[in-house]
Amino acid sequence: MTETPTLELRGIDKSFGPVQVLHDIAFSAYAGEVTALVGDNGAGKSTLVKCIGGIHPIDAGDYLFDGQPVQVHSPRDAAALGVEIVYQDLALCDNLDIVQNMFLGREKRRGMVLDDSTMEEMAAATLRGLSVRTVKSLRQKVSSLSGGQRQTVAIAKAVLWNSKLVVLDEPTAALGVAQTAQVLELVRRLADNGLAVVLISHNMNDVFAVSDRIAALHLGRMAAQVKASDVTHAQVVELITAGRSGNLGPRTTPNGAAV
Predict the structure, then answer these.
(1) Are 198 and 178 in contact (CB under 8 A)?
(2) Do 189 and 165 contact (CB within 8 A), yes or no?
(3) Long-range contacts of 100-106 (CB under 8 A, 24+ apart)
């Protein structure tokens, strides 16, 4: 692990009209590590991810990438830095094959025609680099793939573009036991290949199976960001539900406000 985080957020605030959703958020993700972002429904996970991905502009705070302050105003800005987000709906087209999906909107061309051979070679190299063996043919339509295979294609699509940070939104939510194991192996492999990985999950077993660090959000505030080896399942659940567990979590004033 390098000392400088790939992504570092400091003092991030985000409001929608009169409703403040994120309060003074500090968050870091390191190359070679999986950082789990956990929190109950409404804790602010989706908003934070959309701020990272440039969908929502931040109201206040600092966004640092590879130690340098940057301005991210759009998903294009985030992608230019090397940020790729795999949302829960995967954003794959059932009527297209694997190669077509991986290059959708970023097709390679040779003159006026599509460079199919180069795209197929790049797709194959990416899947090979991730040690993916569950896909029989790159020309299979996505409609014929299992849930685990679809998730694998979406992740491979994200890492195809020299990404440095990959955010995975509930990648195992709709999968069975065997497919979940395959996807978690792939998540771990991404970090082992040197990427910074942010894993959003409600499943504590998945979180502890692959994560190096755990960041727990509670009501729009960062309750704690800790090494996974330093906390128990019960402590993380308490951080998620109460915003505090023992000496973990923000100190509060007598009226309950965080300080």
Answers:
(1) no
(2) no
(3) 101/142, 101/153, 101/157, 102/126, 102/153, 102/156, 102/157, 102/160, 103/160, 106/161
Residues 6 or more apart whose CB falls under 8 angstroms from that of 161 comprise: 79, 82, 84, 106
Over residues 1-17, the mean pLDDT reads 90
Q: What's the rounded mean pLDDT across residues 238-258?
A: 75
Residue 161 CB neighbour total at 10 angstroms:
14
- Of the pLDDT bands very low, low, confident and very high (cuts 50, 70, 90), residue 250 is confident
- Structural tokens at position 19: 């409703």
Phi and psi at 196, nearest 5°, equal: -90, 125
Q: What are phi and psi of 61, to 5 degrees?
A: 115, 180
pLDDT value at position 63?
Answer: 98
Q: Domain 7-93+163-242 falls in which CATH fold?
A: Rossmann fold (3.40.50)
In the predicted model, is pLDDT for residue 255 greater than 70? Answer: no
Tokens found for residue 69 = 């302050």
pLDDT at 253: 39
Counting Cα atoms < 13 Å in the Cβ hemisphere of 131 gives 11
C-alpha span between 166 and 93 (Å, rounded): 20
Q: In this predicted model, what pLDDT tens digit does every residue of 88-117 receive, in sequence order?
A: 888 899 999 999 999 998 999 999 999 999
* C-alpha torsion sign, points 156, 41, 9, 4: negative
pLDDT digit string, tens, across residues 161-181: 889 999 999 999 888 888 899
> What angle in degrees, to the nearest 10, is found between the helix axes of 147-159 and 116-129?
110
User: Which helix (H) or strand (E) covers residue 87, if one does?
Assistant: none
- Cα-based angle 41, 230, 83 (whole degrees, multiple of 5): 55
